[in-house]
Automatic annotation (TrEMBL):
It comes from Pseudomonas amygdali pv. mori. The lineage of its organism: Bacteria, Pseudomonadati, Pseudomonadota, Gammaproteobacteria, Pseudomonadales. This is Urease accessory protein UreD. It comes from the Bacteria.
Amino acid sequence: MNAHQTLLPVQAKTTAHIAFSKAPSGASYVSRQEVGYPFHLGRTLKLPQDPPGMAAIYLQS
């Protein structure tokens, strides 16, 4: 009854939710993000080889 109990930490599921939208100009952008530890969402990039209006992002951990 008074025995020592070891409590283990609760393991939360790691997720990253990213939503893209299209601006009136035709360019895509990150319109919503829910990114928690251990992730980090970098800025929107425009790379030379990307199709016109396409956004590129880096998701880092």
